[in-house]
Design brief:
Layout (H helix, E strand, L loop, with lengths): L3 E6 L3 H15 L13 E2 L2 E2 L3 E8 L9 H4 L21 E3 L29 H8 L3 E4 L6 H14 L2 E4 L9 H10 L2 E3 L9 H14 L3 E11 L2 H5 L7 H12 L11 E8 L6 E11 L5 E11 H22 L3 E2 L1 H7 L9 H26 L1
Parallel strand pairs: 1-4, 1-6, 4-5, 6-7, 7-8, 8-13, 9-10
Antiparallel strand pairs: 2-3, 9-11, 11-12
Helix pairs in contact: 1-9, 3-4, 6-8, 9-11, 10-11
């Protein structure tokens, strides 16, 4: 079985869960081999076929260390559910900082924030070529549009596919999308939609209200957590794309979108002791039969980064299938299934059906290429 050679940009909590998961499923047998996966097998690829071959970060506690060690370095604070072999994995290289750090983080204790390494940034495109990377997975902080674009540009230079897990709009931007298409490279983005997180829950409930004839009048979603993502988002100036991504993901499920004053979706606060646990408070106010009001409130508590990794593994494998099949540009079904801000929004059952059709088509194209080559 061929491997899926990935590079990771940003060795934070999400990267930690992804790397732990890759090693967990590579060894898993029986029920564990399918536990927590919507697609244990996607095309011919399993989660354990993913292999990190390069990694980039800016934190002094991670740069220069093997990836399998760096994923457990501060300020990471997600749950440890599987420890890969210590001292193994690619050495984490220094990335350009660009807009990857908000100044306000310097006011917080070092165990909670980034601590910038003094190393010189590497040439990302060269590092990608030298490592044989096929797909780069971007985990840049919220608000880091320039840093995300630097990695996207390096992918175009090095001939590497791109999975953008953050709300910096690249794959959903028509100009960037066309550049990847012209370069013959697939891409999936933007802003990962967790397995059972705040956004997918909100979308599902909004669709439920609509399909059952209840008019939604107003709704809010507030999220709190104690990881660096929530600390970073205390700088509200970095939140424009995040709010747009999450709000559009919910509005897309409504027949008639709500006016801006009747929908509020965004983070609420940074609570250090929560660590990587995310707590969502959600309320929907509606009108049902006979004009009678109906209100729903929900509290969701979930470990944020494993919740993300369970979907990222689908995005990565779809990207590899597209590479195998020679499909370039945004993979619309994979984007709609895995991301909050895809180029084209679909409801979730429609996205799942389209994803399965894409997988079948990609496999057919690969089979034809193999037949011609023989």
């Amino acid at each position: 079985m061929s491997r899926i050679r990935i590079a990771i940009a940003g060795v934070g909590n999400c990267a930690s869960s992804l790397v732990q998961g890759v090693h967990f499923y590579a060894q898993a047998t029986g029920d564990d081999a399918v536990l927590g996966l919507s697609h244990p097998l996607l095309g011919k690829y399993r989660v354990g076929d993913i292999e990190p071959v390069a990694a980039f970060d800016i934190d002094a506690r991670k740069v220069g260390r093997p990836l399998n060690d760096a994923i457990f370095a501060l300020p990471n604070n997600t749950k440890v559910f599987h420890r890969p072999p210590a001292g193994a994995g690619p050495v984490v290289q220094m990335a350009p900082i660009a807009d990857g750090i908000s100044e306000h983080m310097a006011d917080y204790p070092e165990p909670m924030r980034f601590s910038v390494a003094r190393d010189e940034p590497v040439d990302i495109a060269s590092a990608l070529r030298e490592s044989g990377t096929q797909i780069l997975v971007s985990y840049m902080p919220v608000g880091a549009q320039k840093a995300t674009e630097q990695f996207a540009e390096a992918c175009l230079d090095a001939g590497v596919a791109f999975v953008n897990c953050v709300p910096a709009f690249v794959v959903s931007d028509a100009i960037w999308a066309e550049r990847f298409r012209q370069r013959g490279l697939p891409c999936v983005g933007d802003d990962i939609k967790a397995q059972v997180g705040a956004t997918i829950t909100h979308r599902t409930l909004a669709k439920l209200f609509s399909s059952r004839g209840v008019r939604i009048n107003s709704t809010y979603q507030l999220n709190t957590g104690g990881n660096t993502d929530f600390l970073n988002m205390l700088n509200r100036s970095r939140l424009a794309s995040k709010k747009a991504s999450k709000t559009q993901a919910v509005q897309a499920q409504l027949d008639v979108p709500l006016s801006p004053e009747n929908i509020h979706i965004g983070p609420s606060d940074f609570i250090p002791f929560l660590k990587d646990n995310k707590v969502c408070f959600l309320r929907i106010e509606g009108t049902g039969f006979g004009g009678v009001p109906l209100h729903m409130e929900l509290r969701l508590s979930v470990e944020d980064s494993p919740n993300s990794a369970g979907v990222v593994v689908d995005a990565i494998r779809c990207c590899k299938l597209a590479l195998d099949a020679g499909i370039a540009g945004p993979i619309d079904p994979a984007c709609a299934w895995t991301m909050k801000h895809p180029p084209r929004q679909m409801n979730d059952p429609e996205a799942l059906a389209a994803l399965e059709q894409f997988v079948a088509r990609a496999e057919q194209l690969v089979a034809r290429k193999t037949l011609k080559a023989s």
